[in-house]
Amino acid sequence: MPQPTTTAKGKVLGILKPMGGGDPIPLTKAEIIIGRRRSCDICLDFNNISGKHCQLRLINSVWHARDLGSTNGTSLNGMALTSEHNVLPDDELSIASHLYTIDYEPGGPDAVLQMQDVIDEAASEPRRHSLLELAGIEDEDRPRHRGRPTPTQAPPAAAERERPAAAKEAVFGDDIPQDFKPAPKPIAAIDDDDDFLKLIEEDVKKASNKREGRK
Questions:
Q1: For 31-80, what is each residue's pLDDT tens digit?
Q2: Whole-prediction pTM value?
Q3: What distances in angstroms separate CA 126 from CA 43, 109, 115, 183, 188, one per listed residue?
Q4: H helices present in the chain, as ranges
Q5: CA torsion 13→15→16→20, rounded to 10°?
């Protein structure tokens, strides 16, 4: 970039260049109002430019742009300005539908000058919602908890109820052997209260005889 020059109005702090052709506009003040009114520092005589459209301010050797409530808005690199924002030489400043760049040599630390590039790169990155996604693991590749059935599997209790009896025997090997015999019926069957009392009397007599025999 050529060294700043001095005009009748003062030192040139930057040059507002129309993109696509047109006369460059020297910026000779640290605060400049751009609009359609004749009283503005830079008068842009276009129908879609508001009376006071936007403001340029040089802060710490870096130009900043701010919209002044214009009808058709002010944008930076295609994004509408809702607050004051720094404008670097490579940025495209849109005043309504008219595109400009500011040719100047920014000052200040490199970290400050590169902050806009970092913000733009972060905004362009797709947002990830979990640590697994950050690791590059898709949802279908996630390990599932072994203790819970997947949505396509039936719960263990329901699967057990739906399994036929033959399948259960095949799984556990509990086939009934051919020589299996049922348990015998009880030896003494009590039919009524009298038989029950007789059994009690016999037991009492047996116990009494045992005690007498011991003596």
A1: 999 999 999 999 999 999 999 999 999 999 999 999 999 999 999 999 99
A2: 0.49
A3: 41, 29, 19, 74, 85
A4: 110-113, 115-124, 131-134, 156-162, 165-172, 193-214
A5: -170
Give the single-character DSSP code of 133. H
Residues 6+ apart with CB under 8 A from 112: 60, 62
Asked if 61 and 108 count as a contact pair (C-beta separation under 8 A), the reply is yes
Q: How far apart are CA 188 and CA 103, in angstroms?
A: 117
Biggest CA-to-CA distance, the chain: 147
The pLDDT confidence band at residue 92, using thresholds 50, 70 and 90, is: very high
Are the CB atoms for 74 and 56 separated by under 8 Å?
A: no
Q: What single letter denotes the amino acid at residue 45? A: D
Amino acid type, 92:
E
- 60 and 108 in contact (C-beta within 8 Å)? yes
In this structure, the number of other CB atoms found within 10 A of the CB of residue 56 comes to 23
Place of tokens 């003040």: 29
- Give the C-alpha separation, 175 to 78, whole Å: 79
> Which pLDDT score is estimated for 150?
52
Q: Which CA distances in Å does 98 have to 73, 103, 106, 186?
A: 11, 16, 23, 108
In total, the chain counts a number of residues equal to 215
